[in-house]
Amino acid sequence: MAWLLRALLLGLSAQQLVIATTASNNDAAQPPAAAGSNEDLAYEQIHKSQIVYTSNSTTSSEWISTNICSQKTYCIYTNPYIGHGRGIVLLTKFADFQKIERLDQHLSLASDRIEPNALLPDGSPPFEESYILSKGPGLTARTELRRGKPLMEAAPVLVVHKDFFADIWRKTERNKMLEKAVSFLPPATKEKFNKQRHITIGSIPDSSRADAEDGQKARTIEEILLASPFEIDLGTNSYTPMGHDPQGDHSKHYINYPSTSLFTHSCRPNLAFHIDGNLALRTTVARKIQPGEELSIAYIDPFKPRKERQEWVGRYRPSPSQTGAGGEEEEGGGCPCPSCTGLYPRITHKQHGHPHTSSPSSELAKSDARLAEIEAIRSELRNHESRGVTPEKIEKFLQLHVEEGLETKMAEAYELAATNYNYMGMDRMAKRYADKAVQAAQIEYGRDANDVIAMRIMAGDVRGHWSFGYKSKDKRGGGGQ
């Protein structure tokens, strides 16, 4: 079995650690030996001696400041003992390091594994490594996977402050700092990380060159982070879902999960993901997956206009071949997703929405129109003072999501449906969609997310919810309060 599947099946068991406390500099441990040297590396000494944070746990857990910094601001911190030797490296500001350091007991609970309930009866993975046409190496299902099934957990190994890329304007300096940071990872973890450095180019490799070095393109660490831009926001003490951009001066970081590198990108994916309180990335099946179907996630906001998605994919996740089989230029600007090219598969079963059989240009026009209509109706549903909302408009809003293949984005849609039906005093419909919102939010945000709790409360007593009859009260002069 491929390296990824072996790594997942042999995932490390987690052991809880207590919150770290500062140790004496005299007792400081030396950092692991790094590849190469510090010669010609842009950095500043911010401390005369190393700072080590050590745990009170019986399992050794030490945070080490390497004293390697850029502009005296962005420094490398490492803990080679997290996750029983998996290790993690940070490139961040000192204040943000302190926030993450306090999470070390949680970080050690994260692991690389396939969810036990997803394993086949013989204990083997429910997916296998395959070559995805127009995308390269990926994972395909070996069995049918139903919506709501937890699939995989992945542990973080590299965390980089997003402002680092804007404040350190010299790309060569950024590259040196990132390479030095990765050099502090334990050898086995570094080997897994380095698997992400190459992407396949050209046409489908035959069996004689499937493992060959030719047909590969090297990527920098910066390119790896930007191609898989998972984010956390320490400033709000929460974990930022993809595409969300909360206001304020927060502490946003890119976070890398080598074990997810074979999930292909799709603007209309079949897997949802979220980052939990242990900073583990968890994937869940968002719609029924058939045997042989690729496993995909959306690395960017799927609600973005098609042109923006095409440009992003073409820049950060280009298809292995930029030309079609006949040598013609590939539609979609290098983005192989059906929602970019209009080349939908001629499906005979109801995978999502309806079979697409018209021309690519016609399908793209329909997709653009659906996204525009979704945005227009969403604006109305979010406005509790709107007077144009009808049951027909709510149902149309939900149907557009399904037709567009946005099953990974149903939580908000169901929540808006439940709330607006409750505004109108239609408690049965409100209850129906509040229950659906709970299920969808568990898939998209995790079982303990605030959205899950809020919608569960509403579903438990829709008539007692503040939104019940809101617009009816307003019409009767009740003030809508």
From TrEMBL:
Superkingdom of this entry's organism?
A: Eukaryota
The UniProt annotation puts the region (Disordered) at 348-367
Spell out the PROSITE patterns in the cross-references. SET
Keyword Ribonucleoprotein assigned to the entry: answer is no
**Secretion signal: which residues?**
1-20
Instruction: Indicate the segments forming the SET domain, all copies.
Output: 125-300
Keyword terms, alphabetized: Signal
Under the heading InterPro entries, the entry gives: SET_dom (IPR001214), SET_dom_sf (IPR046341), SET_domain_protein (IPR053185)
Q: Which Pfam families match?
A: SET (PF00856)
**Looking at the keywords, is Membrane present?**
no
Q: What protein am I looking at?
A: SET domain-containing protein
Q: Whose protein is this, by species? A: Sordaria brevicollis
Provide the taxonomic classification. Answer: Eukaryota, Fungi, Dikarya, Ascomycota, Pezizomycotina
